[in-house]
Amino acid sequence: MTxxxxxxLQERLTEFAAARDWERYHTPKNLAAALxxxxxxxxxxxxxxxxxxxxxxxxxxxSAHRVADEVADVLAYLLQFCAxxxxxxxxxxxxxxxxxxxxxxxxxxxxxxxxG
Length: 116
Fold this sequence. Notes:
Layout lengths: L2 H17 L8 H19 L4 H5 L5 H25 L3 H15 L13
């Protein structure tokens, strides 16, 4: 997804809420709560699955559809949250990755013992 796509999605979400007079409900607190609820609904799909079952969840069309819908809900609320607070999500993510690269440096390539 390009920056323009992300900005356009945020704009569409803002327009969607405005057309329904929902902006008054889209406070940072309410959007953070909604984001948490949607993330929990995503987690619920995986709640009782084994690690192996969870790795195969997208193989079943019904569960794949549920996962995609919940991912969309999470992203929608995150984008709305960012729009309300003026946070550029891609810039925030890039900055966080850079900080994490410093905080958690790679140990280098894994060495394998000689087989010979």
